[in-house]
Amino acid sequence: xxxxxxxxxxxxxxxxxxxxxxxxxxxxxxxxxxxxxxxxxxxxxxxxxxxxxxxxxxxxxxxxxxxxxxxxxxxxxxxxxxxxxxxxxxxxxxxxxxxxxxxxxxxxxxxxxxxxxxxxxxxxxxxxxxxxxxxxxxxxxxxxxxxxxxxxxxxxxxxxxxxxxxxxxxxxxxxxxxxxxxxxxxxxxxxxxxxxxxxxxxxxxxxxxxxxxxxxxxxxxxxxxxxxxxxxxxxxxxxxxxxxxxxxxxxxxxxxxxxxxxxxxxxxxxxxxxxxxxxxxxxxxxxxxxxxxxxxxxxxxxxxxxxxxxxxxxxxxxxxxxxxxxxxxxxxxxx
Length: 335
What we know:
This protein is mainly alpha-helical. It has 2 domains: 22-238, Up-down Bundle (Alpha-lytic protease prodomain-like); 244-334, Cation efflux protein, cytoplasmic domain (Alpha-Beta Plaits), CATH 3.30.70.1350. The chain has helices at 12-21, 28-67, 70-84, 86-96, 111-139, 147-175, 178-205, 211-238, 244-255, 289-306, and strands at residues 262-271, 274-284, 310-320. Helix 2 (28-67) runs antiparallel to helix 3 and helix 5 runs antiparallel to helix 8 (211-238). It comes from Acrocarpospora corrugata. Keywords: Cell membrane, Ion transport, Membrane, Transmembrane, Transmembrane helix, Transport. It is found in: Cell membrane.
């Protein structure tokens, strides 16, 4: 049994007053508004972070041109790749705002996961190119010029990436977007690799020009670690993995609902940056259909209130009894 619930976006006082007067008024229009607002926030984050990272990378590219630093080149390439990840994410957020259809009955939220695959490929490409350039410079060493400018560019890269990382992670966690959080963590690691450019510049200044390509290889290795973490995050989403703590929270919530004798299976999945749930509950077999439905409605209501970013739940109520009865006997051969 399923009923649609959601939360509107007004002032805190208005939300509290509306809930007090009509505690069950959670309609699909409210939920659609919430999802659209989340996507709009994601698009704003992507637009701003894209501009910051492009400006950062362009400044670094100019310095690469006259300094010849391969460490800075690797960092610049990575920053350009990080900026470009905003494009597939922006497309996914925009696509995910489309309404569900008879073919795509759950909507288009999973487009974010597809964007995550593109992000992983971009990170892999930047790692490969940076590593190639670093190895080439090790085999054919070249002097690095304008070391002060190279060091300054590394510092600029750190500041730009850290600002973007904090913004993406904050909003990504607030709206429940794994792809946006992963992209923010990616930007944070980019910031620390930018600081590594300072080490390369310092080594060159002390008479060790080989420090520059070595740092370039270290940056490549750091990118590979980011690649591993991002790939794992996207893999979990594609495989419908959720935090086990959410499942435990859902079970505890169901057990506390009046009329629920036992909580059965709980299945949660992310679709874009919202959660969907399918749960089974056991109710007294003496209840009427209307009474059992009321228990299921209250179960969904409580789940939406207690699970962050849960947009909808399908609650299946099974009669608990009479003793020895198997209400799913006809389905055993199909399971």
